[in-house]
């Protein structure tokens, strides 16, 4: 637990007096088969130190060689972020002393990133669009993983020693750096979250990263500063490291705004430093002062030659870009004709792909939404699973729907059939056949059930005769009961009307 | 005049976590300075229209296909480790990292 004692100012009050300036550094782990500079597997969750070559250990005499796919993925990210792609760029050594790299330097890019000067339009939940300028996206490598032993569990403070696994050392990373983001005001925390969500979505959509934040595939450092409302000069910033969930990004930005405001209100100065995020208390604590270890003594990496990108190569990669997620959403919303809230719910439920496939398989957009947001969502919740993991196929939905349209089954039975499909009993048609679930719409059987219901409820019959058509609903229960729920409700209504001469 | 001051050297030693005695600092300040000065003579020849280079051969795009190769065994990985624990390197707890 962090023992947090700093003063805070109420968020709204803070932003009545100050303007926040944000900046983000998002690290994206690429999902190439091999590492950035060695042909060791890039895999998550393997036994420690099994995905290691002499290059990853920085042994004397080794020669790193750049992974072509990692370069291409980096260019794809740059293009998706509307960046300029460098015609020529190189690698540099970022020197620091820490056992997460056995080389004592990280191979990165310094003054010539592969992608620079881009932008990304971020749509906030109410539809307001905020443009974030991208300063650069550069290639580098991930570090090994340290586990601190002894002392308080897992914390470096009080630890006796650390154990090092170099499987992650050398995994390709792209670091995306924004320009200072001004003007977000009270929406700063929301924008922070939406920005990181957009980056995650883009790299996932490009297929260049697994984009799982809980695995560290996408990691965010959030820079925050405040300046008085009428000021032009930015305030001193802090950098909150490793804020690794969307919710945490939002909370960390909010917290730092509240903390900065209190420091500035008291007349003190913000210390330029890194901050550590604590998920348990939703607070940050002081890390190390920024000036201390920031002397990385970058110099050009002598073991690697420059990357030159030709127009043909970039065009070829540009042709591989999928439709940007934001544009796709706009298109699908228009095509499907959903209301704003309907569409937002669909996006939040994460079933865009499912609905798109169901529509492609022949269902209407309304039917597809009804199923995925209704019964399937309910089943997923009941099973405590993600909707996508439930195993419902678009074809099943289309078939169920055509059985309903053909009046073979009603909605209620269709929902039962779906459960039987998921239990592995076959296709909807097979199940309807096997379990004799087809609705009863032969008039003899229905007529008999209606007669019995009417005889049992003479008062209801009087109401219907008196023009209260909704009273027919009261007859439906007994009729359904008599037909084991398999009556065609529409036909029952017609029969009642016929019998009463209405 | 040496391009490297004693303070520079103290700072570098700190960054590299190398302990240096006063005598060593005195000696290395002069020696490192001499090395830096020697390399600086390159700038006397290279005019501003010569781009900086980090590689003697004008090669570009030395790239590798994304194909998995051989990895080391755990025994080989840990062969030079001063200390280890099962399949991981064991290092002293170091506070100033991230």
From TrEMBL, chain A:
Keywords: ATP-binding, Ligase, Nucleotide-binding, Protein biosynthesis, Transferase. It catalyses: L-glutamyl-tRNA(Gln) + L-glutamine + ATP + H2O = L-glutaminyl-tRNA(Gln) + L-glutamate + ADP + phosphate + H(+); L-aspartyl-tRNA(Asn) + L-glutamine + ATP + H2O = L-asparaginyl-tRNA(Asn) + L-glutamate + ADP + phosphate + 2 H(+). Residues 353-500 form the Asn/Gln amidotransferase domain. The keyword Transferase applies. Coiled coil: none annotated. GO terms for molecular function: asparaginyl-tRNA synthase (glutamine-hydrolyzing) activity; ATP binding; glutaminyl-tRNA synthase (glutamine-hydrolyzing) activity; transferase activity. GO terms for biological process: glutaminyl-tRNAGln biosynthesis via transamidation; translation. Its EC number is 6.3.5.-. HAMAP family: GatB (MF_00121). Heterotrimer of A, B and C subunits. Allows the formation of correctly charged Asn-tRNA(Asn) or Gln-tRNA(Gln) through the transamidation of misacylated Asp-tRNA(Asn) or Glu-tRNA(Gln) in organisms which lack either or both of asparaginyl-tRNA or glutaminyl-tRNA synthetases. The reaction takes place in the presence of glutamine and ATP through an activated phospho-Asp-tRNA(Asn) or phospho-Glu-tRNA(Gln). This is Aspartyl/glutamyl-tRNA(Asn/Gln) amidotransferase subunit B. It comes from Glutamicibacter uratoxydans. The lineage of its organism: Bacteria, Bacillati, Actinomycetota, Actinomycetes, Micrococcales.
TrEMBL record, chain B:
Pfam families: GatC. GO terms for molecular function: asparaginyl-tRNA synthase (glutamine-hydrolyzing) activity; ATP binding; glutaminyl-tRNA synthase (glutamine-hydrolyzing) activity; transferase activity. SUPFAM superfamilies: Glu-tRNAGln amidotransferase C subunit. It comes from the Bacteria. Its EC number is 6.3.5.-. GO terms for biological process: glutaminyl-tRNAGln biosynthesis via transamidation; regulation of translational fidelity; translation. InterPro entries: Asp/Glu-ADT_sf_sub_c, GatC. It catalyses: L-aspartyl-tRNA(Asn) + L-glutamine + ATP + H2O = L-asparaginyl-tRNA(Asn) + L-glutamate + ADP + phosphate + 2 H(+); L-glutamyl-tRNA(Gln) + L-glutamine + ATP + H2O = L-glutaminyl-tRNA(Gln) + L-glutamate + ADP + phosphate + H(+). Keywords: ATP-binding, Ligase, Nucleotide-binding, Protein biosynthesis, Transferase. The keyword Nucleotide-binding applies. HAMAP family: GatC. Belongs to the GatC family. Allows the formation of correctly charged Asn-tRNA(Asn) or Gln-tRNA(Gln) through the transamidation of misacylated Asp-tRNA(Asn) or Glu-tRNA(Gln) in organisms which lack either or both of asparaginyl-tRNA or glutaminyl-tRNA synthetases. The reaction takes place in the presence of glutamine and ATP through an activated phospho-Asp-tRNA(Asn) or phospho-Glu-tRNA(Gln). Heterotrimer of A, B and C subunits. PANTHER family: GLUTAMYL-TRNA(GLN) AMIDOTRANSFERASE SUBUNIT C, MITOCHONDRIAL (PTHR15004). This is Aspartyl/glutamyl-tRNA(Asn/Gln) amidotransferase subunit C. It comes from Glutamicibacter uratoxydans (Arthrobacter uratoxydans).
């Amino acid at each position: 637990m962090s023992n947090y004692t700093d003063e805070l100012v109420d968020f709204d009050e803070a932003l009545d007096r100050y303007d926040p300036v944000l900046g983000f550094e998002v690290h994206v782990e690429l999902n190439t088969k091999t590492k950035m500079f060695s042909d060791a597997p890039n895999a998550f969750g393997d036994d420690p130190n099994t995905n290691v070559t002499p290059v990853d250990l920085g042994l004397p005499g080794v020669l790193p060689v750049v992974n072509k796919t990692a370069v291409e993925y980096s260019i794809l990210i740059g293009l998706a972020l509307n960046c300029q792609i460098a015609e020529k760029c190189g690698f540099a050594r970022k020197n620091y002393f820490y056992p997460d790299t056995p080389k004592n330097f990280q191979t990165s890019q310094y003054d010539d990133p592969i992608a620079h000067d881009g932008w990304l339009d971020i749509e906030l939940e109410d539809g307001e669009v905020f443009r974030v300028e991208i300063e650069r996206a550069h290639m580098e490598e991930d570090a090994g993983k340290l586990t601190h032993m002894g002392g308080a569990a897992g914390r470096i403070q009080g630890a006796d020693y650390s154990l090092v696994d170099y499987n992650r050392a050398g995994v390709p990373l792209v670091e995306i750096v924004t320009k200072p983001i001004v003007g977000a005001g009270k929406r700063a925390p929301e924008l922070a979250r939406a920005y990181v969500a957009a980056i995650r979505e883009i790299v996932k959509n490009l297929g260049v990263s697994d984009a799982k934040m809980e695995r560290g595939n996408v990691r965010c450092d959030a820079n925050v500063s405040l300046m008085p409302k009428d000021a032009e000069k930015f305030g001193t910033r802090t950098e909150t490291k490793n804020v690794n969930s969307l919710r945490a990004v939002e909370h960390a930005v909010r917290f730092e705004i509240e903390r900065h405001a209190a420091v500035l209100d008291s007349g003190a100065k913000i210390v330029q430093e890194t901050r550590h995020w604590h998920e348990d208390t939703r607070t940050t604590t002081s890390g190390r002062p920024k000036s201390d270890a920031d002397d990385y003594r970058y110099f050009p990496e002598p073991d690697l030659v420059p990357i030159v990108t030709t127009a043909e190569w970039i065009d070829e990669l540009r042709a591989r870009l999928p439709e940007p997620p934001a544009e796709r959403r706009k298109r699908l919303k228009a095509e499907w004709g959903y209301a704003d809230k309907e569409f937002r719910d669909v996006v939040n439920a994460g079933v865009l792909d499912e609905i798109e496939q169901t529509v492609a398989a022949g269902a209407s957009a309304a039917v597809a939404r009804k199923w995925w947001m209704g019964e399937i969502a309910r089943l997923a919740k009941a099973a405590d699973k993600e909707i996508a993991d439930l195993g419902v196929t678009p074809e099943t939905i289309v078939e169920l729907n055509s059985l309903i349209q053909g009046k073979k089954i009603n909605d209620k039975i269709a929902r039962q059939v779906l459960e039987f499909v998921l239990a592995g009993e076959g296709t909807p048609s097979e199940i309807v056949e096997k379990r004799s679930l087809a609705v009863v719409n032969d008039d003899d059987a229905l007529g008999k059930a209606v007669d019995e219901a009417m005889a049992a409820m003479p008062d209801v019959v009087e109401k219907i005769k008196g023009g209260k058509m909704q009273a027919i609903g009261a007859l439906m229960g007994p009729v359904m009961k008599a037909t084991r729920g398999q009556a065609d409700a529409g036909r029952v209504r017609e029969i009642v009307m016929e019998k009463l001469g209405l | 005049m040496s391009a490297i001051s004693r303070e520079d050297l103290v700072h570098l030693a700190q960054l590299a976590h190398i302990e240096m005695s006063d005598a060593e600092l005195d000696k290395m300040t002069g020696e490192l300075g001499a090395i830096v000065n020697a390399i600086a003579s390159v700038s006397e020849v290279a005019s501003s229209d010569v781009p900086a280079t980090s590689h003697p051969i004008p090669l570009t795009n030395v790239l590798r296909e994304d194909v998995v190769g051989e990895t080391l065994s755990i025994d080989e990985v840990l062969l030079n480790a001063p200390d280890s624990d099962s399949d991981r390197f064991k290092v002293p707890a170091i506070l100033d990292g991230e």
